[in-house]
Write a structure and sequence with these properties.
The complex is a heterodimer.
Chain A (H helix, E strand, L loop, with lengths): L2 H6 L3 H15 L2 H25 L6 H7 L6 H7 L4 H14 L5 E8 L13 E10 L2 E8 L4 E7 L3 E4 L5 E4 L21 H11 E5 L6 E7 L9 E6 L6 E7 L23 H5 L4 H6 L3 H10 L36 E7 L19 E2 L17
Parallel strand pairs in A: 6-12
Antiparallel strand pairs in A: 1-2, 1-11, 2-3, 3-4, 4-5, 5-6, 7-8, 8-9, 9-10, 10-11
Helix pairs in contact in A: 5-7, 6-7
Chain B lengths: L23 H23 L2 H18 L9 H20 L7 H12 L6 H16 L3 H12 L4 H8 L3 H34 L1
Helix pairs in contact in B: 1-2, 1-3, 1-4, 2-3, 5-8, 6-8, 7-8
The chains are: A alpha+beta, B mainly alpha.
Chain lengths: ~375, ~200
């Protein structure tokens, strides 16, 4: 049905017959069921995420859970109308991002600088996230101290490298670093459309183009939503796909009780990404980085999903209970997470790109709970 | 609709209550499925195709969020369509400033959709089958334009070229064809109703 149809269907009866023709043609019972199932799945994910927010939220979950929460643009339209142009853009981006395809994202994580040091020297991690679908994913990260982490899943084998260069297997359902995986196991990169829906629901959005770019700036509006404080989306002209997304976590004024990032406790503990993923010596000794540690906790330690409790909804303090902290304080967290779409080399990933480079030698054993490697510092 | 007054177990936040058996989301999904085709028909009559799926999902989402406010004495389908209507109006205000659909048409579509509230999903699908039958019984000249317009998605200008008529003539032919289809469906509906009544009697 095109807009033209509405031009020549001049009366309500015309419209109704035209609509019936299209329902008869397009909206088979299977399609209707699919549409309903899709909506309800989103709602379920939202409910699960809401429940988990009450106990397991930290800096990573806002980004990750954003990918799992329902598309609630409808609520946005009804209750909190956004500037039309930004809203239209957001919706166009949602449509664009709902399409499948191989994609590569360049990742940059910037951690807070230590007190007395400049932001320029703040620890960083950079890398790529390659996605074919939710069972073919490869993450590579290099930390500013030179350490690397590679993790993949090729549809059958889930694997990770160790600091010693060994390839270790991990349970296929082991969580990934939470900044790319939702509590439900969806990938942020795969669920960018849902992220956009979440932005529509919980953020005040406005176009912020400076030179005709399709750019949306989002500031958190729902203080109960524990997402990043600010998000800047740059869309690809024409396709409206998200070219770049920058997530900035809250400032000191936004305490955890408001659902934002916790007050910064610079210098305390390791940057969370390391905690999650880096194959530093400690993790190598335990066989893996944190993601695998979590999976091992789940599989071997019996912790299972949901992941270890971290405290109440207020997330009111370091480590937030549950033994998740270290050094008596909460781990540092990245100040910004940037995801930028880049070209897939050669247009498509090789068939074996997601497979382990060699046969895993053993399962990644669990690390001590709450333990983690040191921060990615050049001086360490 | 088999159950227009669902016993939905909800927590205050709208999150399904824990416990055995189907949760509120399951029940909600069943209800929405029951009314899915009719809601889609309403949306397809009201907005362009490109917006239909989005508004459908939006309506479902908003309905879920407002479920605690749902008056169980009201038919679920009408309530769901009421939500969809607000979304249609909002969509119109944002997207159709240049050529807004007339309020009177939207109201008439609403009234037309209301007629479907008393039936169930199977009955509505039966109407779609009858629609097909009615199209197949159209005189050739009308069936051709309907086929080209609604099955092949041909623009009116293309149809006009194909059938050797001008654009206005094709629009008129389409309009007459739709009127014939509507009349045919009403006749068939009457026959179906008589059959039901007869069987009941």
């Amino acid at each position: 049905m095109t807009d033209e149809r509405l031009d020549h269907e001049e009366t309500a009866d015309d419209r109704w017959i035209g609509a019936m023709m299209h329902v008869q043609r397009f909206d088979t019972p299977e399609r209707v069921d699919m549409l309903v199932d899709r909506s309800v799945r989103s709602l379920r994910a939202e409910s699960v995420a809401a429940r988990r927010r009450t106990r397991a939220w930290d800096w990573r979950t806002p980004v990750a859970a954003a990918a799992s929460i329902a598309i609630v643009v409808g609520a946005t339209l009804v209750f909190s109308p956004q500037p039309a142009s930004a809203d239209s853009l957001l919706r166009a981006a949602q449509v664009a991002e709902s399409r499948p395809g191989e994609r590569r994202f360049a990742l940059t994580l910037v951690f807070p600088a230590r007190p007395g040091e400049s932001e320029a020297t703040a620890p960083r991690a950079t890398g790529t996230l390659d996605v074919r679908d939710d069972t073919h994913v490869r993450l590579e990260l290099t930390f500013s101290d030179g350490r690397t982490m590679v993790r993949g899943i090729d549809g059958r084998t889930s694997w990770v490298n160790s600091a010693d260069g060994e390839i270790l297997s991990v349970p296929s359902d082991a969580p990934w670093p939470r900044f790319i995986e939702t509590p439900e196991g969806d990938f942020l990169a795969d669920r960018m459309d849902a992220v956009l829906g979440d932005i529509g629901a919980n953020y005040e959005i406005a176009r912020c183009s400076t030179s005709g770019e399709e750019r949306i700036c989002a500031s958190i509006m729902d203080r109960g939503f524990r997402g990043p404080e600010n998000i800047v989306l740059t869309l690809e002209p024409g396709s409206h796909r998200v070219q770049r997304a920058e997530f900035t976590f809250g400032g000191p004024e936004r305490g955890r009780g408001h659902g934002g990032m916790p007050p910064k406790r610079r210098g305390e503990g390791a940057p969370a990404m390391i905690d999650e993923a880096a194959s530093s010596k400690p993790t190598a000794e335990t066989g893996s980085g944190r993601p695998d540690a979590r999976s091992a906790q789940r599989g071997g330690g019996g912790a299972g999903r949901p992941r270890p409790e971290r405290g109440p909804a207020t997330l009111a303090g370091p480590s937030t209970g549950g033994g998740g902290g270290r050094e008596g304080g909460r781990r540092a967290e990245p100040r910004t997470v940037t995801i930028e779409r880049v070209d897939v080399p050669g247009g498509a990933f090789a068939d074996n790109w997601f497979a382990p480079p060699s046969t895993p030698v053993r399962m990644a054993p669990p690390p001590p709970r709450g333990d983690g490697p040191p921060p990615p510092r050049g001086d360490e | 609709m088999s159950d227009s007054r669902p016993n939905l177990r909800l927590t205050g936040s709208g999150i399904p209550a824990a416990g055995p058996g189907p949760d509120a989301a399951d029940v909600f999904a069943i209800l929405v499925r029951e009314h899915g085709e009719r809601l889609l028909a309403y949306l397809r009559a009201s907005v362009p195709s490109s917006a239909v799926d989005d508004l459908f999902q939006d309506a479902v989402t908003v309905a879920w969020r407002r479920l605690p406010d749902y008056d169980r004495t009201r038919p679920f389908g009408a309530w769901l369509r009421g939500i969809a209507r607000n979304l249609v109006l909002d969509h119109r205000s944002r997207m159709y400033r240049e050529r807004p659909t007339d309020d009177a048409i939207l109201d008439a579509i609403e009234r037309r959709a209301e007629k479907e509230d008393s039936g169930d999903r199977e009955e509505f699908r039966g109407k779609l089958t009858r629609l097909d039958e009615c199209v197949s019984r159209l005189p050739d000249e009308y069936r051709t334009v309907i086929h080209m317009c609604y099955r092949l998605d041909a623009p009116v200008a293309t149809i006009a070229k194909e059938v050797g008529a001008n654009i206005e003539a094709v629009k008129k032919r389409l309009q007459r064809a739709r009127a014939m289809i509507a009349a045919c469906m009403e006749r068939k509906q009457g026959v179906a109703d008589d059959g039901t009544t007869g069987a009941t009697a």
